[in-house]
Amino acid sequence: MFKSKLIIASSILLLIFSLLNAQVDKPEESVVDITLEQNGKQGTVSATYKIPDGFHQTLQKDYFFLEVEDIPGITFAETIYPEGEKDADGYIEYKGKIYSHQKIYY
Q: Can you give the residue ranges of every domain in the chain?
C-alpha cells in the first residue's frame, strides 16, 4: 500500500515538474542590436534587426526608422537602409537580418 502511494505521489510530482518546465520562458535572442563606432571626428550608429522566420518588415520610413536624440555639437545623417526586395505590390521588404545605419559627424 505504501509503495503504491509513493509511486502515485512520485508520478504526480513528475507531472507537475514537467508542466512547470513547459511554462518557463526561455531567453530569446534580442530583436535589435545597436552598435556605435567612432573614427576621429565621425562615426556610425548601426542597428541590426532580426526578423523571425515567416515574417517580414516593409520599408515605410514613417514606421521603420533609426531615431537618435539631438545632441549639441553632433550631426546625424539620414538613415541608410539596405536594398531589400520588392514584393508583388512594389513595396520593399526585408526578411532575416536587416542592417541600417547613420553616419555621425562631430
A: 32-105
